[in-house]
Amino acid sequence: MARGKAGNNQEIDMLHGRIWTKVLRYALPVAATGILEQLFNASGIMIVGNFSQGDGTAAVAAVGSNAPVTGLILNLFIGIALGANVVIANAIGRGSRDAVRKAVHTSIVTALIGGAVVAVIGELLAGPLLGMLNVTDEVFPLALTYLRIYLLGMPVILLYNFEAAIFRSVGDTQAPLAVLAVSGVLNVTMGLILVILFHLGVAGVATATVIANIASSMILLYRLVHTDAAIHVNLRELGIDPLTLRQIMRIGLPAGVQSAVFAVANIIIQAAINSLGTVVMAASSAAFNIEIIAYYVLNSFSQACATFTGQNYGARQIGRCRRVLGICILEDFIATASTIAVVLLFGHSLLALFDATPEVIAVGYTRLVMVFSAYTFSMLYEVMSGYLRGFGISLAPALLTVAGVVGVRITWIEFVFPMHRTFETIMIVYPISLAATAVLIGIALLCYRPSKRFAGQPANA
């Protein structure tokens, strides 16, 4: 396998040429994929809010109250998928086709097994999990229905995310985007049919989500089977290589924990939000579906930083790794600031798409302003964490994120919120916790100095 050479015109040669334009070519489709996925998810909330029989606000709150639980699961496994991304990227940089083959096939099987295990455990714990979130009595049955159906689709949901990571390891970020566009249209169409014609409410949008993920995962699997690139999948070779799995988990599990701690912290915050009533729950749910768009933009450059660093570290181009970090931070700042400005400008109108109730819009916009004020810090530590992961350093960012995010937020909700039980009191913890985390990750980067530490060492991920 020629090192750094693209296998098709959608792949990106990360080892040669201008980094600036190639990072954009990588990051923007990743951001678009995340945004498109969130828009399709948000469409489900819009559908139940506007077309379901009964209390639309309760239906919106039911779907939104599940976000921390589903986010916890998805973030954990998306982090593990990122570990597969880095391992494959590093192997490509080294020119090891055999290592690429083992990592690809191990990733596919890991996704399926992990999804099956999560589905079984999740079904058993669905009720208690929602109980921990203080979901109100009027919302609880709807929320439980949605969660149980969603969990049944975990094998295919995780499979799609691992397949997307495989494509991104070679710089092909367009294939996951194109497939998501197709499955997303299916998601919306099925959701409208099941809610409007069959009156299934939250069960309908959950079922539509599972069907769409079946379609997207199968299309990507078909492409992997029929590609002649290094990431080709041979169904008869599917299995787990223990050494490769350990490499993936060494990088991916801490990265997954780092992402999952946000969901843990959000579960704690969601419980506090739920205690303030259905209107606040609905407003927070609507705002979350908007603000996550800006998060996908900033996080896409973190993924780009990890993948570009992983390939260049594998090829022993350490100086290029340093340039990747600087360029990703600068481009991420510009892209994130632009996205936030647009969202805040049209925030009231966007919130009205979910629920036009004036009280919901007012509370939701408060959340947008408070959370976006913290996104500069989030952008910095996400890119720095991606850079460290590209060198195989994954545990330290995870531990520091636990301290900076979960530690601060648990302390705040436990001790400060009870004294001032307002929505604003909850929201101010976002800038505080993310600023603390950015400082901690920055200190870790200065201490590790990976470009010097690994300059003379083998590049095995």
Molecular structure report:
This is Probable multidrug resistance protein NorM. Multidrug efflux pump. It is a multi-pass membrane protein. The protein is an all-alpha fold and 461 residues long. The protein is built from 18 helices and no strands. The protein has helices spanning 19-51, 56-65, 67-94, 97-132, 140-152, 154-169, 174-197, 202-226, 242-274, 278-314, 318-345, 347-354, 358-372, 375-390, 395-416, 423-427, 429-448, 450-453. The longest helix has 37 residues, at 278-314. The radius of gyration is 21 Å and the shape is globular.
Radius of gyration: 21 Å
Give the oligomer, counting copies of the same chain as homo and different chains as hetero: single chain
Class computed from helices, strands and strand pairing: mainly alpha
Poorly predicted parts: 1-7
Shape: globular
SSE string, helix = H, strand = E?
A: HHHHHHHHHHHHHHHHHH
Count of discrete structural domains: 1
First-to-last CA distance: 18 Å
- Sheet of most strands: none
